[in-house]
Specification:
Elements (H helix, E strand, L loop, with lengths): L6 E5 L7 E5 L7 E6 L12 H10 L2 E6 L13 H19 L3 E7 L1 H13 L8 E7 L4 H5 L5 H13 L6 E4 L9 E3 H8 L14 H8 L7 E6 L11 H12 L3 E6 L10 H19 L2
Parallel strand pairs: 3-4, 3-5, 5-6, 6-9, 9-10
Antiparallel strand pairs: 1-2, 2-4, 7-8
Length: about 290
């Protein structure tokens, strides 16, 4: 059994799901690394969280894992805008209740789209904790991944018709990834995830450099780290994973850097040390620059 993780569970908003877990002492007046979950993620969903929390605590940082309306199976009826709005509530709470000196948003998988949307809408919010930087860990294409699975194209066609008929919030499919991951998937979210140029389509390998720049260029004022996984199983065969990470960083601009973890899978299981090193070093570096 894994060792327990010490921390503070708190509410950041009025909805029942709007809670978050902060590892470590929960001391005020420090910086916070805010995890932005991908599809099906929840509390302690990744093996690098415990060592990352310890590394951050050693430098007077805290790791924060929020529960969003999209967490666990909620992603099927959620949206990037809803997630970004909940992240804003969290950031404001960290500012008002924990005197946060600043946050680094680090998204995993679809959480990378949430981080991008947050920057687009709320980076300058005066009530929120200052946004110091962004980490995109495993920014890959939901569209390209889902196209590797059976029956997805026919479900998309059905979803597109439902949206056209004004039934976008109706459920188009249940248990889309099988009975072990139950989810109610709305037609609107299916289109957002699977349609080319859909709301979630930010990191597809078939997007041109110009299209990537249009989607990601607003991150340019912020330090950004793109972490690609060298053996990411959610990326179609034949796609250069490291090269895709480099293209994403280039689309953001000179403030962005990319790193590829050789042999790393999507969630970096077995590569925890490398994950912690990349993420924590980035956090400490941007905090040091911000204090100059």
């Amino acid at each position: 059994m894994a060792a327990p993780v010490q921390g503070t569970l708190f509410k950041y908003g009025p909805a029942s799901i709007q809670s978050a877990f902060m590892t470590g002492s929960g001391a005020k007046g420090r910086c916070h690394a805010v995890f932005v979950p991908g599809l099906t993620d929840g509390l302690m969903s990744h093996t690098y969280f415990k060592p990352l929390g310890e590394a951050l605590e050693a430098q007077q940082w805290s790791l924060v894992q929020p529960q969003l309306s999209s967490s666990y199976g909620g992603w099927g009826t959620a949206s990037l805008d809803q997630d970004a709005s909940e992240l804003l509530l969290l950031s404001r709470h960290l500012s008002s209740h924990y005197d946060s000196k600043g946050i680094v948003l680090f998204g995993h998988s679809t959480g990378c789209q949430d981080a991008v949307r947050y920057v687009q809408r709320f980076a300058s919010d005066r009530q929120a904790a200052p946004l110091l930087g962004v980490v995109l860990q495993a920014p890959v294409s939901d569209r390209e991944f889902m196209n590797m699975l059976p029956k997805m194209r026919e479900i998309l066609v059905k979803a597109e018709k439902m949206v056209a008929d004004g039934k976008g919030e109706d459920v188009v499919e249940r248990d889309i990834f099988g009975p072990t991951a139950p989810v109610f998937l709305s037609a609107r979210r299916m289109v957002a995830l699977m349609q080319k140029n859909g709301d979630d389509d930010m990191f597809s390998s078939d997007l041109t450099d110009e299209e990537l720049s249009a989607l990601l260029g607003h991150l340019a004022p912020l330090p950004t780290l793109v972490i690609a996984s060298g053996a990411d199983e959610y990326v179609p065969p034949g796609v250069d994973r490291a090269g895709l990470g480099e293209r994403i960083a280039a689309a953001i601009g000179p403030s962005a850097t990319s790193a590829c973890i050789p042999g790393g899978l999507h969630a970096l299981v077995g590569k925890e040390e490398e994950a912690v090193e990349h993420i924590s070093s980035f956090c400490f570096d941007v905090a040091a620059v911000g204090s100059e």
